[in-house]
């Protein structure tokens, strides 16, 4: 969204929430994106139900960098709660506890045949034998990363986050919250019914919705459904190896028709720890944790505090009382980030920003920590796409790890998976003036 910061980002960063009973027209400026993106609300948990797909086709006179598919279908993975999602959110914020898990996941609005409520209404994708289809898969689920596959059919990933990739032939994908993937599937099996399914990946001790959502890939014809309809063999919910084996395969096309420009001469280095900490509650007044305090996510031991007006508006009005420019560019204390924790588990709070000069070339290294409940973190940057140039386990070593960066064909994306007790390095050029947020999965930090 170049030169259009007023319509990008969560509440109190680039705009205030839309008041009840009013409306807001969003202006969207595309630049180099081509493929599948999505839009969603960004206030509290309204994203759970207020979202949709954005499809950007090749420009006139050009085509896909692969044979044009016979047909296409958008596949939206989402969370399903029996309760009011806003009440679930408000209850967790009030108590300081972990958020209640969802009651099911859905594919295009339906939990699928494994749930009684979807009897007769499970989503079906009719396909013609021998033809290839483009699935535009969006993970709109609030928290869980998901494995996805189709029984007895191989998948070919050809794009993610609005950018083409070198083809990845696979039996399953692992897609993180906020991510999109363009996937080809060829109807080359005996004409029948086959389940497509999605199940969660979680390698932490935090509670998660351990449910499987299904839809049906149905060959066009008068054949009867087999009993049982075959399910895909997806990896186990804690199969870290399967998740890593997939996520490390992504490469940009880096071709003459789809060139990339990986930043090389870095002018701003940022090391950013990502943790789930505790925030002090006076008089042990929060019921969500055993010690009476509440959970709070942090970056470099700073947890975001809502200002009274959004930061972009405050900046344009020279109202610097609403934020400070002292967000740390590195952890305030260095320790064994992924080992035994010998520092406080409590985080600081504030409305702090990092100031960048126009045109600065930024390398940002996310560092996972073992504070609290170590887990994977889906990380997203507003206002920019970026290149994922490196990732690894353990503590980032700024002397040796950059030697293994991929500066030839790294994926250009807007959402990545920060591995549990690991690191991920991204690069981008700060050429889009505005105020933008770094977000983790659903919430921002």
Automatic annotation (TrEMBL):
Main location: secreted
Pfam families named among the record's database cross-references: Cu-oxidase, Cu-oxidase_2, Cu-oxidase_3
Localization: Secreted, Extracellular space, Apoplast
Annotated ranges, domain Plastocyanin-like: 2-59, 72-221, 327-436
Recorded catalytic activity of this chain's protein: 4 hydroquinone + O2 = 4 benzosemiquinone + 2 H2O
Function: Lignin degradation and detoxification of lignin-derived products.
Name of this protein: Laccase
Species assigned in the record: Acer negundo (Box elder)
């Amino acid at each position: 969204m170049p030169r259009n910061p007023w319509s990008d980002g969560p509440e109190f960063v680039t705009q205030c929430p839309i008041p009840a009973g009013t409306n807001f027209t969003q202006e969207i400026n595309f630049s180099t994106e081509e493929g599948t993106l999505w839009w969603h609300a960004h206030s509290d948990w309204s994203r759970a139900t207020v979202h949709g797909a954005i499809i950007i086709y090749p420009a006139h006179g050009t085509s896909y960098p692969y044979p044009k598919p016979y047909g296409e279908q958008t596949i939206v993975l989402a969370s399903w709660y029996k309760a009011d999602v806003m009440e679930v959110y408000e209850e967790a914020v009030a108590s300081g506890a972990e958020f209640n898990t969802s009651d099911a996941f859905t594919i295009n609005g339906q939990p699928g045949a494994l749930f009684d409520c979807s009897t007769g209404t499970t989503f079906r994708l009719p396909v013609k034998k021998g033809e290839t289809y483009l699935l535009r898969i969006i993970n709109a689920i609030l928290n869980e990363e998901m494995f996805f596959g189709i029984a007895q059919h191989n998948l070919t990933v050809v794009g993610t986050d609005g950018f083409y990739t070198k083809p990845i032939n696979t039996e399953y994908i692992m897609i993180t919250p906020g991510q999109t993937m363009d996937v080809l599937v060829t109807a080359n099996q005996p004409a029948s019914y086959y389940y497509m399914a999605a199940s969660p990946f979680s390698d932490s001790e935090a509670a998660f919705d351990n449910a499987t959502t299904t839809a049906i890939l149905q060959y066009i014809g008068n054949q009867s459904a087999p009993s049982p309809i075959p399910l895909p063999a997806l990896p186990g919910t804690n199969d870290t190896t399967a998740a890593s084996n997939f996520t490390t395969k992504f490469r940009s096309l880096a071709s003459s028709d789809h060139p990339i420009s990986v930043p090389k001469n870095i002018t701003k280095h940022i090391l950013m720890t990502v943790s789930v900490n505790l925030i002090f509650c006076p008089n042990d007044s929060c019921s969500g944790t055993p010690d009476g305090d509440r959970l709070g996510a942090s970056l470099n031991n700073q947890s975001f505090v809502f200002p009274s007006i959004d930061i972009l508006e405050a900046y344009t009005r020279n109202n610097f009382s609403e934020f400070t420019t002292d967000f740390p560019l590195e952890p305030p204390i260095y320790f064994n980030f992924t080992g035994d924790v010998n520092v406080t588990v409590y985080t600081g709070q504030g409305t702090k920003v990092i100031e960048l000069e126009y045109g600065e070339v930024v390398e940002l290294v996310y560092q996972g920590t073992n504070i609290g409940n170590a887990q994977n973190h889906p990380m997203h940057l507003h206002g920019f796409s970026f290149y994922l140039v490196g990732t690894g386990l353990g503590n980032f070593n700024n002397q040796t790890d950059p030697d293994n960066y991929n500066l030839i064909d790294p994926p250009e994306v807007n959402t990545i998976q920060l591995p549990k007790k690991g690191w991920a390095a991204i690069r981008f050029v700060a050429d889009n003036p505005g105020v933008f947020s770094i977000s983790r999965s659903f919430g921002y930090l």
